[in-house]
């Protein structure tokens, strides 16, 4: 008995019986003859059209995302064989899919088999809530008569996590604003160093609940290794090779502020769980930009001579995806502890970046590099959730995550803010994600706006005036963009998502 798959269910045929009925024909002709008879007798029957597989039936929850923003990327794999029709992938709910990690997200994809085969293909998924509340979605896969196979999705739209009135007294510029922020985030609840292991499970967990290690993670790819909380925690042994254990990384080395001195020593805003081997290689060196590395980690972190200017000694360069996270952590440290930095006992590496002054706090080459990292790697969902988790633990926030524009108002061209006496609000863009058009609610004193792709290409430049500005997306490819609006009082920066329509 041999099964033929009809409606993707086995229909058993006795081939020996067919052979006896049709002795003078070849086996192939006999089977074709049989199939034609079956299709005549049962016209509703269809033959199976190859096979395909998906690597998961459900992705981990995307957690909380503010409406108008989008989540970090998750992904899964599909493959197929003996397919005669395209594999059509569609998604329902506030989720989008793409074959490219950072762009071209839409609600459908079509994979074309090559000689019937679809090799293992990574499908990227993002969550784009337009309202608040718990949400579900489904990704459906169908290839002719084969399927559907589904992948379940979930996530939540959340309100802004910034407490009402938290930044009401942050309205100055330059050193004045820096001091105002210091007064807001000062005197947080100091944590013990040992408690960090448990806190990391709230602040640095991936969607799947593993350790989110910025020294080993590779966004949009499989990481070289993954750590499990508690199980892979550094117990004093191991770490001679990557992937063995993780420990507690002071992104600003504790030797820069005198060693095990609280509250700096346990401040979560500059502490991350990272691979022990990479941490030891990074040592107490400053961050920098490295062209000719002497050592490289498995995810691409590089150790070698600094090329950022102003310091030519050894530096560590993290991967681009986390440079903004680290920069905002450093700007927090130099703001939160501005009343102490003049007394810090820097070592040589600390002296390379820090200037021993309350303002600006870093040497010119360092502040220029940190600003560039901050701008090139905008605030992500990961940081927003981490900021809120630390706020619940320590009772203070990182203002440069909540208000990225504060960086420009403190260390940028402060002349554009002279006379400004109100907190700078977030720029309103709606709908975001946008399809056929979007509207910018431009504040008083607006001059012009520019839109850039994620690779830094300017795709639109236009003058702006106060009020609503309606912009067509007809000439934009679906994807993620950065919108910059310059006003008399400063620069607004917001992510803009354009989807298919």
Q: What is the secondary structure topology, with strand pairs?
A:
Layout lengths: L1 E5 L2 E5 L1 H7 L5 H15 L9 E4 L9 E2 L8 E8 L5 E6 L2 E4 L9 E4 L6 E10 L5 E11 L2 E12 L16 H12 L10 H8 L42 E5 L20 E5 H7 L12 E2 L5 E4 L8 E4 L5 H14 L11 H6 L10 H13 L4 H14 L4 H4 L2 H7 L16 E3 L6 E6 L3 E8 L4 E6 L3 E6 L6 E9 L2 E9 L3
Helix pairs in contact: 3-11, 6-8
Describe the protein in words:
- 21% of the residues lie in helices and 28% in strands.
- The chain is of the alpha+beta class and 501 residues long.
- It folds into four domains: 2-41, no CATH class; 51-157, Immunoglobulins (Immunoglobulin-like), CATH 2.60.40.10; 174-413, no CATH class; 428-498, Sandwich (Immunoglobulin-like), CATH 2.60.40.
- The chain has a five-stranded mixed sheet, with no helix packed on it.
- A hairpin with a 2-residue loop joins strand 10 (133-143) and strand 11.
- Helix 3 packs across helix 11 and helix 6 (323-336) crosses helix 8.
- The radius of gyration is 28 Å and the shape is globular.
- The two termini are 51 Å apart.
- Mean pLDDT is 87; it is low at 1-16 and 415-420.
How many helices? The count is 11
Strand fraction equals 25-35%
Q: Please bin the fraction of helical residues.
A: 10-25%
What sort of overall outline do the alpha carbons produce when their principal axes are compared?
Answer: globular
Total count of strands:
23
Low-confidence stretches: 1-16, 415-420
Task: Going across the biggest sheet, name each strand in turn.
Answer: 4-11-10-6-8
C-alpha end-to-end distance: 51 Å
Q: Indicate how many domains the architecture comprises.
A: 4
Briefly note the structural class of the backbone: alpha+beta
Largest sheet: 5 strands, mixed
* Rounded radius of gyration (Å): 28 Å
Q: What does the average pLDDT come to?
A: 87
